[in-house]
Structure prediction request, 449 residues.
Amino acid sequence: MADKQAPPEGGRGMDTFVSLCKRRGFVFQSSEIYGGLGGFWDYGPLGVEMKNNIKRSWWRYMVQERDDVVGIETSIIMNPRVWEASGHVGTFADPMVDCKSCKHRFRTDDLKPNDKGQLVCPDCGGELTESRMFNLMFKTYVGPVADDASVAYLRPETAQGMFVNFENVLTTMRRKLPFGIAQIGRSFRNEITPGNFIFRDREFEQMEMEFFVMPGTDEEWHDKWIEARMRWWTDVLGVRQENLLLREHANEELSHYSKRTADIEYNFPFGGFSEIEGIANRSDFDLKQHEEHAGKTLRYFDEASGQQVLPYVIEPAMGIDRCFLTVLIDSYAEEDVKDEKRTVLRLKPQIAPIKAAILPLSRNEKLVPPARKVWELLRPHYMTQYDDAQSIGRRYRRQDEIGTPCCVTVDFDTLEDQAVTIRDRDEMTQVRVPIANLLETLREKLPGC
Ligand code: GAP
Prediction:
């Protein structure tokens, strides 16, 4: 694993990635034509494909391929008492200060003293208010009357949907400990300082799994899940090991529910290693809290001991937006090819938004019909793009920049031999393949797609 002090990989600034995302239709500013809104982002046509691929990969690894995890999908707005029980109403807060002059708001722990040792507004140098706690949950009202009785919150984590459904899943799916419940969904946090592109958002997506275990086996399961999660980042997503770090939380840093937490961090171009996933031992905190607040028993009958037990919970929790950014940065390369520069995203084929591009050598009227036929052949099987604008070299570069693993070129020989050329993104090699064998060849080149 990497040294915490190592400089960020490649030395490229975030501008490179923000600009690529905008230019190639991965990520746009939310409501951009109105000037955007801090901490909110839209995923474009390529971005949504890549994000869906990340989600599919996680679901496959965490649910489909396991015999001890099931999935659910719960509502974003829940009974507000859930958030009293979980501790979010009382403790989900950051310290913040306001500038008395420009009215901008800052996280207290982000501020650095000036050369006179004073904390002043970093934007205008104005005087700051006393630090006070600011709850990060977005408030709303349910129903037509906006009063205290109708207050509800947009969920700040998906986890509570799993805890309050523990009993439902346990009984309907006839589960025995240990078993897990997984969910992918949106979460909302009114972050005081959103930023670093899609790293810290106010609306984001999480992929979380609550793994319920017998008390006493929790530490062993925690270690197993830390190892399994790290393997997903390296082996499944292909993120380079040297850019990842496993960091244990110090005692004073632990969340109110956690017995132990280990974070997986990535070496980002801004500020170095930062959290991309947390794997926490939440003990029996949440189930116990919900038992007390809801007045319902959430115990598991352990046949071996004849006892009703309150399970412990191991929770791997990650954000998709941070994962998206990680994969994008880690796969990015600029290379010199002959006299040209090429930018390439060396994405794993399962994660790449477009699997194959169909490129007729030119817009010649004889080439377009067979090229369109090849496109029709591939469309039911893979996410594809058809591109016939500009030179073939320019089109290869365009596909490299969005990480397309295979380009299928239709040329004048195709009219004679009913074959096409497959050009490999990483090696830039080309092989000639009969159209009759094209799907079979692509299946080999695009494993798991
Ligand atoms: N249920 C536990 C939980 O939510 P967390 O460490 O607060 O734990 C888990 O969040 C993951 O969610 C983080 O590792 C990060 O990837 C993602 N995340 C948290 N806050 C985020 C934000 N404001 N913007 C984008 N992703 C965020």
Summary: Residues 45-64 form the longest helix (20 residues). The radius of gyration is 25 Å. Residues 1-9 have pLDDT under 50 and may be disordered. Residues 94 and 135 are 7 Å apart (CA to CA).
